[in-house]
Structures are given as C-alpha cells and as structure tokens.
C-alpha cells in the first residue's frame, strides 16, 4: 500500500453528497490541504464530455461530472463520499487487496497517470471500462487528489450478448486491453491464436475502435489461395491481363480504401507473394495485374495466424523482413481452456444468438460443469457447434449431460446423472483433484473463479488446495 495521507473528507461525506448535482461546490471546506486547486478542477471537469470523477487519496469520490452521472450514476444513489472500489467493483477493500491492479496505487507510485481495463459494475450490469487515473500534485509534489476518466469499451461485452465479443476472464481482458491501446494508431496488428479463438472478431474490434471504423473492413482468407489467385484478388487486374480477364477488376486493396485489411492465416501466403505483400506495405503502392499505373493504397493492416511464424522465419518458410513489418503489435488470444470461467457467459450468448425458438434454451448445471472441464481444441467454434447439436435434443429446453457428445462427458469429469443434481454448481469435494491441481498451477483463474468452477466456497477451496500442497 502506498503511504497516502489521511483525508478527513471521508468524515464529511454527507456534506459532499448534497452537492452531487453541482460539482463546483461539491467539496466540503476542510477537505484537502490544496482545496482551491481541487475545487477549480472539479469545476473544470464538469464541462468535459467524458465521464470523470475526482477522488481523494483515501479512495473517496469527491465529485462526479454530469457525463459520469449520466452514464454510471444510479438514479436513487449518489456516489459522492463513497469509496471508488465499492461503487465500481462492489469490493470492501481497494482493488489491489482484492487481487486486481489498482490504478490509484500505481499512479501514486509513479506520480503520473496509470491506465487499465477494468470490469465495472454499472446500472446496466458489468461492463468493460478503460480507466485512466491522473494524480493531482500540490506545490510540494504531494498527491492531493486524483482525476479518473472512464471510457466504456463498446467492442466487447462483459455479460451475455447476442452479438460481438463476449468475455471477462483475465486473459480475455488482457487481449481486449491491447486492442484498446493499439486501435487508435496505424500500427499493423498481428493476432495470434488457435483456430476458433475469435481472431476475426478481434480484428473487427480493432477496426471498430479505430478512426477507420466508418471505412470498409475487408477480410482475405489467405489459406488455400494459389499465388496467381492471391495476386489478382488482392491487387485486381486489367482487362486482358490473362485469359478470362474480360473486364478490369478492382482488387481488395483498392476496395478497402480508407478502411482495414484483415489478412487471415497470413502464414499460408506463398513465399513469392510475400515479396509483393512486403512491397505493398513498404511503399504503400501497388499495380493491378497486367497494369502499368501505380496506385496508392490506403488501409490499416491486421494479420492473423495460428502458425508459429517466428519458427517459420527460422526455417526459411516466412520472410523475415515481412515478419518484422507485420508483427509490430502482436496480440495473443487465449484458447477457451484458459478462459473457462467465461464459458457460462459464452454459452448463454450463443444460445441467445442462435435462438429461433420462442422458449430460450438453458444448460443444466451438471452439463455446464462438463462444458467447463473440456479442453475445447476447436475453441469457441467447437463450443458453438456442440451447443447447436445439443439444443436439438433438449426437448424440455434444458441441455443436460446426455445431450452432449460422448467425448465431452469422457473428459475425466465425474458424470452424475442430471436428475440428482441441483441447477447450481455442485460440490465436487471428492471430484477431480488432478483437474484442480492443473488449473491451480496454471494460474489462469483467480481463486474466486476456481471456487465457482468447482462449486466450493473460497475457504473450502483453500483447504483443498492446502491438502494438495498448493495453497
Ligand atoms: N469472445 C467471443 N465472444 C463471442 N463469440 C466469439 C468470441 N470469439 C469467437 N466467437 C465466435 O466463435 C466463432 C469463431 O470465431 P472466429 O471465426 O473469429 O475465430 P478465428 O480464430 O478467426 O477462427 P479461424 O482461425 O479458424 O479462422 C465465431 O462464431 C465467433 O462469432
């Protein structure tokens, strides 16, 4: 914990509360040593379009501007005088003591801004929020307050959603956070992940969060394209360039003008074409097949692969110069088995998405446990397919273990007949220690997620981990 000065403002929360609607007079008198600066700041922020709050060093919210109140404020409750971690996370302790990154602690240490992607509770439910915290210093360089700016991330949902990216597991959030960072720039992005991890959806998210969102998003699947087809698809051709070229045709590089070009499975691009791709990226120009005119390209490049491109460079199967050009900002997408805490939310999302029935299909807790324990080599695509199949058997609109394929049930999870199970996660006290050992050593799930996953209280989980020598 940083040594933060005690602030008497917490004791005056009620005074501040009255002023929630008019931030200029929000702070009570004895609030801070440098009160005039803070008051001026509060007045200034009121006119900002972005949601912002002012905090004292003891985590108390001193003021919230109109944009904040509109977006995050609850109709019946003021946030003034409340602890930020209680309002945003429903925690009883600061974020770092709850196992999360605390931007206030970091900003205090840095004496500078810190930025982090958090899941916040909002009146609409959990949401991804890009939080930036800036310390305000007095003339002695002591931190007297903080300004927090909150931007809701619209490219992903932290609760079940009928469309787009869904998730809130730590590794998913890390990838999403990287998207938020890189999207506004023109840097090429390389998405790395197994098949079905959502590379295309993430590429779309980069596009949508960028300044090119109004331009086209063009996908090129590089796998299975021959050299000549790849060239004519990408660059287009002139009339008469080859047999069958009866008219001039624009290539995708021309159609994408002002937008984002997504080259999926870039590792499958033939070596000869890699040179042409490199030239396009380096010069920003291209020529149609059979053409002499040099045309200007205007696109932002995103690539994706499930192949070990670095290794392919070593083996001479991928050009090193092209690799360095496109791999400026790699983002690793986690396989589903490393974000299994997201499975219930994803299941709900997929069942909503594909629902044509009047009655919504749900998944029995015992089936959900099996879905969470399976390794999903085909990732989200496989999950979606399994659900599509299972729902056909769910006559009473509840997917049970017997509706899942055998390979999921035989994944090492003890199978208990659905009828004997409650609709909530079961206590698997005598269940699969090996699975617990694997997940606990993996460090991908928090203790709380592990507990939910195994249907245990955190305290029981701790005891079991201890008995396994893992606590
Ligand atoms: N985080 C996510 N939330 C919701 N749906 C997702 C998510 N990630 C992927 N999907 C869904 O999973 C399926 C596979 O996603 P996508 O095609 O983007 O994967 P991919 O990694 O590009 O696959 P491939 O490498 O095989 O091309 C799609 O139906 C997509 O909508």
Can you characterise this structure?
The longest helix has 15 residues. The protein is of the alpha/beta class and 471 residues long. The N terminus is likely disordered. Adenosine-5'-triphosphate binds next to β7, α7, α13 and α15. The site of adenosine-5'-triphosphate has 18 residues, from β7, α7, α13 and α15. This is Sigma 54-interacting transcriptional regulator. Keywords: ATP-binding, Nucleotide-binding, Transcription, Transcription regulation. InterPro entries: AAA+_ATPase, AAA_lid_NorR, P-loop_NTPase, PAS, PAS-like_dom_sf, PAS_4, Sigma_54_int, Sigma_54_int_dom_ATP-bd_1.
Per-chain topology:
Blueprint: H1 13-18, H2 35-45, E1 52-55, E2 61-64, H3 66-72, H4 84-89, H5 103-110, E3 114-122, E4 125-137, E5 143-152, E6 156-157, E7 165-166, H6 170-182, E8 189-192, H7 199-208, E9 217-221, H8 227-235, E10 236-237, E11 249-250, H9 252-255, E12 259-264, H10 271-283, E13 285-286, E14 295-296, E15 299-305, H11 309-314, H12 320-326, E16 329-332, H13 343-353, E17 362-363, H14 365-373, H15 379-393, E18 398-399, H16 406-409, H17 433-442, H18 447-453, H19 458-467
Parallel strand pairs: 6-7, 8-15, 8-16, 9-12, 12-15, 17-18
Antiparallel strand pairs: 1-2, 1-5, 3-4, 4-5, 10-11, 13-14
């Amino acid at each position: 914990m940083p040594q933060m000065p005690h602030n008497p403002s917490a004791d005056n929360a009620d005074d501040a509360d009255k002023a929630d609607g008019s931030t200029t007079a929000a702070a009570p008198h004895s609030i801070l040593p440098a009160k005039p600066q803070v008051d001026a700041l509060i007045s200034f922020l009121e006119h900002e379009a972005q949601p912002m709050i002012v905090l004292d060093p003891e985590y108390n919210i001193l003021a919230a501007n109109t944009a904040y109140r509109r977006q995050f404020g609850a109709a019946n409750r003021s946030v003034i005088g409340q602890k930020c971690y209680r309002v945003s996370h429903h925690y009883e302790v600061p974020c770092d003591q709850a196992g999360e990154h605390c931007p206030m602690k970091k900003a205090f240490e840095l004496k500078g801004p810190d930025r982090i992607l958090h899941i916040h509770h909002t009146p609409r439910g959990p949401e991804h929020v890009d939080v930036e915290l800036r310390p305000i210093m007095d003339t002695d360089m002591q931190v007297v307050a903080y300004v927090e700016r909150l931007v809701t991330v619209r490219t992903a949902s932290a609760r079940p959603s009928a469309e787009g990216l869904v998730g809130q597991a730590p590794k998913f959030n890390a990838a999403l956070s990287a998207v938020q960072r890189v999207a506004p720039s023109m840097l090429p992005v390389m998405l790395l992940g197994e098949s079905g991890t959502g590379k295309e959806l993430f590429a779309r998210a980069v596009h949508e969060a960028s300044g090119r969102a109004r331009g086209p998003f063009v996908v090129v699947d590089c796998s299975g394209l021959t050299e000549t087809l790849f060239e004519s698809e990408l660059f287009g051709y002139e009339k008469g360039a080859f047999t069958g070229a009866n008219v001039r045709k624009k290539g995708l590089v021309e159609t994408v003008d002002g937008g984002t070009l997504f080259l999926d499975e870039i590792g499958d691009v033939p070596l000869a074409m890699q040179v042409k791709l490199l030239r396009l990226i380096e010069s920003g120009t291209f020529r149609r097949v059979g053409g002499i005119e040099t045309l200007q390209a205007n696109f932002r490049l995103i690539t994706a692969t499930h192949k070990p491109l670095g290794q392919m460079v070593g083996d001479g199967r991928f050009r090193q110069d092209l690799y360095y050009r496109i791999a400026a900002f790699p983002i690793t997408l986690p396989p589903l088995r490393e974000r299994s805490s997201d499975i219930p939310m994803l299941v709900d999302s997929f069942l909503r998405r594909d629902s044509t029935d009047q009655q919504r299909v749900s998944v029995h807790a015992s089936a959900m446990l099996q879905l969470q324990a399976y390794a999903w080599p085909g990732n989200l695509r496989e999950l979606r397919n399994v659900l599509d199949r299972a729902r056909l058997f769910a006559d009473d609109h509840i997917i049970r273990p017997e509706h899942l394929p055998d390979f999921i049930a035989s994944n090492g999870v003890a199978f208990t007949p659905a009828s004997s199970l409650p609709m909530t996660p079961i206590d698997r006290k005598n269940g699969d220690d090996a699975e617990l050992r694997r997940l606990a050593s993996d460090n991908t799930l928090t203790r709380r997620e592990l507990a939910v996953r195994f249907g245990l209280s955190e305290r029981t989980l701790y005891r079991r981990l201890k008995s396994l020598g893992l606590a």
